[in-house]
Amino acid sequence: MAQAEHTDCQLPAGVKARLWMEARCFYSRESAQARCWLWLLRDDGTLVAVHVPLAHLGDDDGLQGFLRELDVNGNEAEFSSTRFGDVVRLTDAPAVPMPRWAISWGHPFQERLRSFATELDVDTLRLLGELEAPGPFLGSVENYNRLASLEPGLRERRTQALKDFPPLVVPLLLRTQGWPSLLPDQYEDRQSNRGHASELTCPPGVLEAIDRGRDLSGALASHYRVARAVVRSAPMRTPWRRLDDVHQVLRVLDAIPAHSRPASAASLEAWWPSVKLLPVPRSSDALAIIGQSFAKGWETTWESTGLAAEQVPAKLRDCRDFLTAAVREIPPDDCLSCAEPDELGLAWLARRGLHSLLRASDRWHAQAMVRAAPQGSVDAPAQLPAILGDWSDDGRHASELLTATALVEEGREMSHCVGGYWNECTTQGDRILRLSLPDGAQATAHVVLAGVDVDGPRYALEDVRSRANAECSLVMWRWAQQVEDAINSPDREGARRQALRHARECASRADEVRSEWVRPFDRASRAELEQVLAWLRTQRDSGPRGDVLLEDYVRGTGHTPVRHHVDELVGGDPLDLVREPTNPHDPAAIRIEWSGRKIGYVSRQSNARLARLLDQGVRLDARLTRVVPESRAWPIIEFRVLAPASRPESARGRGVTGRQMSDA
Q: Distance (Å, rounded) from C-alpha 224 to C-alpha 231?
């Protein structure tokens, strides 16, 4: 059998260049040694990368038949070859292989690699490299083919669009990934962060604008549902380090006054991690509050905090504890007693501003914790059921804090506010752990319940802090992540389920006990809180206008792809109500669509009246009111339907929001 060193061969018809590669060029682990890789550049300019058994390394004699099998199997990700056995297509492999550093520049394989690369389209390779230079990997086989296989005129127009608006066009035309994927198990979940994004769906309007040289900025503004000025702004003209927050970034920028937006992509990216930690806007009004927080200017607002960009996220995480405590200060008989911390935080931004919120949080964290009279019943749980307990590995130790006293002691010893987390631990399932390393370093880890799936409850690492809320070392972070994995291990599923049952039982008690250890509010913060609450009351009193036909949450979200787009949803967005009279399960069925995408249905108990109105051609105004993406294994999406302002003039239903699905 010919080996990788064999180079003198007659390539079969249809092949312009080929390259064989052994596992040792990529991997040292034994599990990879039984396979080898083959890159084929075909005469039509398309590139193919496959993964085959090692026994066929260098088998150029079988390439002619293999080409026919590739054509017969079309785009099948895996198939069985007569000559090569089990074949796996590697669409996310690099267009030009990148050996490990152990393969030196003068190695014979490097010479063959360079020879292979010279046959590829250099302009396409250069473009992909320039776009990925700041961030995600783009130089994959799939992305190469998406451009190199086009006729020259079309390729030039798409290339220009990618250069003009890289953060906006790259997610629509190319697949972004964290790093190259060269093994079959990396292709199992294209939604994971291990190299894959969701399936590409470039909207027809944008694609037509690109391919026909029309108004691209207008098409992008329409697709992303923002102003043209946002699309044309400086941050949209250069590649970003990250591309997964595009919709969120655009929504925030669109809410900021035009003269106050970031002046560059560098400024946007420097402060964006802090924006993501601001109170979460669940409605268009709330998003407007976030935007107005920067009315004095993007850079000016952040610089007014007196903190460097890398310091602000920690301070904003501290604000969450402060706002949670502030909500507890609201008297039970107050109309705002059920306010959420994010709602209070947004009100604080609107009434007092970001600087005031950060200062109030700092003052509150500086207060010493005091013992307060317990409220409610005295039968609070004395101890949480353990999930991990005490666990050690290679000199590193993790200890789960299972009592209120243990939390208070941890807070005192580490000089942070974890002592007030007992209520979250008992009613929400949160876990606090004391971590230590062999060198004596200590930290406190906060782990939260992230959802429930077929494998039971899942926990996620929320934060890790050293003494006095200082950032911990990278070594400590890695230990905390290993602890997270241990908590979620299959052998602890029973313990996780027991912990979830315990949290639900505690949450269901009407007389649940609040922590008797509290951090008091200083006079200035209490006065500011009263101003914020007064403002929030006036906002609630205004209420929605018009006759509300229905307020409910969207049903069936767990059976739609909406969970992949939940970050794009914002309260106030219009919804389409689409009748499905031939639905086999319910003749009154009404499908709910957002931006042309199905997100679920109106509940069967509530759809009859709306169905009759839609069938009569009545215009209904449906709006998304609130989104809670992290509430369950599927998102909760709330909506409101208002009565029509007037009947349509004819059966044509001019301007009708609801649509009738054809019986065909």
A: 9
